Amino acid sequence: MAPPPPRVQELQFPHLDIPITIQQISPVLPAGPIPATPGDTLYLSNLDDMIGARVFTPTVYFYRSNCSNYEQKTVTTIVRDALASVLVPYYPFSGRLRERKNGKLEVFFGPGQGALMIEAQSGMRLVDLGDLAVPNPAWTTLIYRFPDEEPYKVIDMPLVIAQVTRFSCGGFSLGLRICHCLCDGLGAMQFLAAWAATAKTGKLMVVPEPCWDREIFHPRVPPMVKYPHIEFRKIDDGSSLTKCLWEVKPIQKCYRISREFQAHLKSLARSPDNSTCTTFDAMAAHVWRSWVKALDVKPSDYELRLTFSVNARPKLKKLPVKDGFYGNAICVACVSSTVSDLVNESLSGTCGLIREARLGVSEEYLRSTVDFIEVDRPNRLEFGGKLTVTQWTRFLIYESADFGWGRPVYAGPIDITPTPQVCVFLPEGDAESNGAMVVCICLPDSATQKFKEFLCLMDSSDKS
């Protein structure tokens, strides 16, 4: 009998170059009339416009060769035509962003805007790319960036950028960049599902009907900030944490975490009063502590922060969002701790702090966030002492991305090293997966072995 797989498995990916040839770059305009004309604008809420949303979310989707049903139409044509169709009900994605005098963003419409489609080809085969289940920074050529594009640029950019790359084996990838200002993760899945269903069926499939409604998150008059919002606090980084991650480019490491190990962590993280601990609470606490220990952050009294997004839709009772709302309806929850307290605290203690922060996101907290941004609009990303955990395991990304060629082999981000203080929890791509997740995190090379040991609970001090 074969031995059981390890509960924590370090995943490997090859270091390679993927040469591509770009064959065509063209705009994709809505396939029919839209309720906006040149000169029109759309309001973005402060949740859409917070500094952390002023980014593009890059993802890639791989598909095996299975084009027998589409001999008369190329993959690119099917994907482009479906995008043009969904840009009618999702017409804001065909606009552009601009900044008003007060620094706030809005969507505006002008002639000839639309999304952007890139058609590319590679002489490589999918099998040459290694294990497609493991996010690989080498895949960056499969997601289009403009020459000399500035980091974090969103002003006057196409809001959907799609690159279809055909491989010599007949397989292909779809590389996407979608502007976070227009949608959060759940909203992006809604848009993606409509696009994929439209491509698969050959007719417009939009369920639910998209809803803009950003005005429901308009700031109060006068603004009422009722929480300290330490997630936005400006901190001068006097610790070794940021220095060790930004002075030398870190390494992206990925680990498969079995369902059994997740359950084991939850049991270790259970508090004495048996308060409910989610898998996310336990995993976030364990990864944060392991990361800080491996980095050996100094000084010990330095204040660290863990941030993560919380979907506020279920919290909204007074003004609930409509079914089909795809805008940003998330709050940034934040936990703070000194280095000393974090590394010496029990796992259950850290888990309790995360649970408290997660449950602390309420309708009033969301309204306070909107008002805080209105009063003191942050104009730069704050990295001081921070780790941000992004939870993709709650998204049906594989189920949403069947464009007619079946479930993608991989769906998700590829390279987090440009933002090395971000950790991503991904669903395992195998359709037969039993609940495993993939954790992607950045570390300097000197800390990778220590992190693996802490993550695997090889250090006895982590077992309580």
UniProtKB/TrEMBL annotation:
It comes from the Eukaryota. Pfam families: Transferase (PF02458). Belongs to the plant acyltransferase family. Transmembrane segments: none annotated. This is Omega-hydroxypalmitate O-feruloyl transferase.
